[in-house]
Hints:
By secondary structure, the protein is an alpha/beta fold. Helix content is 32%, strand content 21%. It has 13 helices and 14 strands. Strands 3-2-1-4-5-6 form a six-stranded parallel β-sheet, sandwiched between helices. The protein has a six-stranded mixed β-sheet with strand order 10-7-11-14-13-12. NADP nicotinamide-adenine-dinucleotide phosphate binds at residues 10-16, 35-37, 39-40, 69, 81-84, 86-87, 104-106, 148, 178-179, 181-182, 326-327, 330-331.
Amino acid sequence: xxxxxxxxxxxxxxxxxxxxQLLADHPWFEITALTGSERTxxxxxxxxxxxxxxxxxxxxxxxxxxxxxxxxxxxxxxxxALPTRAAxxxxxxxxxAGFVVCSNASAYRQEPDVPLIIPEVNGEHLGLLEQQxxxxxxxxxxxxxxxxxxxxxxxxxxxxxQVYAVRQVFATTLQAVSGAGYPGVPYLDIIxxxxxxxxxxxxxxxxxxxxxxxxxxxGKRVPADxxxxxxxxxxxxxxxxxxxxxxxxxxxxxxxEAIQVLREYRGSVEIADLPSAPxxxxxxxxxxxxxxxxxDRDTSQGMSVTVGSIRPDPLLDxxxxxxxxxxxxxxxxxxxxxxxxxxxxxxx
Length: 348
Ligand SMILES: NC(=O)c1ccc[n+]([C@@H]2O[C@H](COP(=O)([O-])OP(=O)(O)OC[C@H]3O[C@@H](n4cnc5c(N)ncnc54)[C@H](OP(=O)(O)O)[C@@H]3O)[C@@H](O)[C@H]2O)c1
């Protein structure tokens, strides 16, 4: 098929660069527009972008001019890596103008008619687009991807919830510096240190977990009712968010049963053939010192969440640790998978 023209909004940032890297060779999508703030618009991408990834900037994309974010962009799908404030004002304008907007920003994740999607976990929530169509005078649509840490938490919990019903979760996060964007956290604050405060993050993770784990009934999203206690920390890791969690279930599994369920989990069959879908959304490591961000974040091109240290918990039922690549599965790759799902369902 002819490739679908796509734009990347906020293409010079930490997540925007991942989009550029991933979309350069995508079988369905072709980058036709890149945008940035006033700082970079009008400049040549390779000159104005402080590229931080190991691979070089894709040749042809490096020569593109960074544009303003407005409805004249030559694209059908827009991948938004805008900061929250810019997303708040620009994403509805672009959706109204007819674009399919796949957003990484938190601005609209909790709107009742905006789907918040991890395709393997809750693809059926795309049904909210019917409400969105009825509520808003938009020629396009808006779909969001979750907070990167919520992604790592939910992808580890969902397989177990389906069988044993999760009731309570106590979670402590160890979040990489790339999660704060570029240039992000000052090095004098983070080297040789842990910062036990990421403003607003624990609330976002909690609320989004309830939405993602919730049901879709009679055209509406019904949030899950899970007790959550979350503490967030920024740690001196470049990429990869770790979540240490203790879980209480309605029907507690043994560690062996939990391992088997996580290993057998494939998520929704609908997505198996999408180009960015991993064979296994969740991988289990049995070594006592895994998962680790440096060793496990890139598994399946950064699309699988790795879970390990699955043990009995003396207070709740089970303990375990998950690692997710925050700018891949937790941001750009997750958003591209959402767009692939929209295409396969005929939304374009
Ligand atoms: N980092 C992660 O792990 C992660 C994970 C999930 C979701 N997210 C979300 O993804 C979004 C991007 O995060 P990030 O980490 O990539 O941030 P970032 O590194 O700070 O990048 C922000 C990007 O937005 C552009 N920008 C800023 N103001 C703009 C405006 N008014 N109009 C157009 N473009 C504008 C910047 O362009 P200039 O370079 O031209 O200033 C830059 O390209 C945020 O909403 C964040 O919450 C991030």
